Structure formats: C-alpha cells, structure tokens
Amino acid sequence: MFTVKYRLAHAFETPNCCNDMKLSQFKILAFDVYGTLIDWESGMITALKPLTDRVAMNLNRDDILNAHAHYESAAQRFSPSRKYSELLATVYRRLAEHWQVDAGWEECLAYGRSVPQWPAFDDSADALGYLKQHFQLAVLTNTDNLSFSGSNARLGVTFDAVMTAEDIGSYKPDDRNFEYMLETLTHRGITRDEILHVAESMFHDHQPANRHGLANCWIYRRHDQEGFGATMHPGEMPTVNFTFNSMADFAAAHQQEIT
Questions:
Q1: Among residues 20, 32, 39, 175, which one is catalytic?
Q2: pTM for this structure?
Q3: Cβ-count burial of 233 within 10 angstroms (0-12 exposed, 13-18 middle, 19+ buried)?
Q4: Are 253 and 144 in the same domain?
C-alpha cells in the first residue's frame, strides 16, 4: 500500500491546468528516466568527485549541477547524434576546463560510462511495479541504449516501449523526440489523449509536452530545493495537469482514485 500524501509546497509558481482529468483515464505512461526515476543528480555528484576533488575553489552541489546543466545542454544541441556516454565525456572535459583542472581523455570516458551506476530513487521500483498492473509503461529518455539498460536493471520493470536519444538522433527538448514517440505509439493504436507524459524536468519534458498537446505529470523531486539542479531554467514555466513530489505519491494517488 502507498501512503497518500501529495499536498504540495511549491518552490515555483507553476501553472496547473484546470480540468477534470483522472490518472485512470490514460492507457500509457511515458516516462522520463533521469531525474524522475533515476537520481541522476546524486549519480553525477558521485561520478564527478575525481574531478571536483581537485578543484581549487569551493564548489557546492548546485554549483556543480548548474555547470553540468549548461555544458550538457550545449553538447546536446551541437552534437545531437552523439551517444549519451560519449557526450558526457565531452561534458567532463568542458567542466575540467571551466574549473581549470587537467583531465585526461580516459578520465572523461570513465565519467561517460558511469550512468549505469547512478542510483534509482528509493520509491521508483515499487511505484513502477504497482503502475505496471494498471498501465502500459514507456520510456522517452535522453540517453543511449547501453546506459539505459544498466539503469533499467535498477528499476525492476519491463517497459512496453523504450525510446532513447540514440534511437532518435536528437535530445529532448527537441520536438523530434516527441514526434518520434507519438508516431511510434500511434502505430500501436495509442492515441495522443491516451498518453500521460511523466517527468521531472520542466526544460526537457514539460515544455515540449505542452507544445505537443500531451497531458503531463510533474514528479517534483526537487520540491524541497532551490533552482533547477542539473536541468536548464525553462524560462516561462509550462502548465502541468498533475503534480506529485515523488513516484510513491503518484502511485498512491492512483490507488486512491480507483478504490
């Protein structure tokens, strides 16, 4: 059983759509993974320690995450066809230059290979196991297939569709990624209004979800923290149809709705 505790304390003024939507009306949940199901910020901080431990200046967690967000976003825009593991190696190099620390390419590559070691949030596997009983589950993720396979093992569920940036040749928030997902699911007989896009990132996910007319659910993992962490500031905040502070709260809300 999940404890229902999804009253929110927003750190941002986020428009919520006024509607009568229910979670149970959807056929498929399309998940972002990193930041939503996988605790990528903690994974990054740990995997970057060989670099950040050599930085002369004092860096706090948000200093590291904000710098990472900038260089990752730039790399994804300028090199959209590169595998995520290779792209992360470039991000590591840019961070080393930014902080004026020497880093060999093998060290950069090691960071790129760290994604499968990034931990899942404590509630992800149980929530997904519950939701799998009621929905089809899909993934639309900004990573490569090998990296995701390692993360998938931590989540303990078989997804009904896995769509990676490596498959598509671009990174969210590029509209191509959402067009690819919609075309793929349409071919399987799933209509746009049967999809609920579930994600943490306003920048990578909720803005393009708004553009494509997708119902969306914000898993507000950073509800007790300032800023946007490892994602870029979205500018104007997107609208969301549902907001929960965790996957456990999301699953509990669905359980309450159907009982």
A1: 32
A2: 0.92
A3: exposed
A4: yes
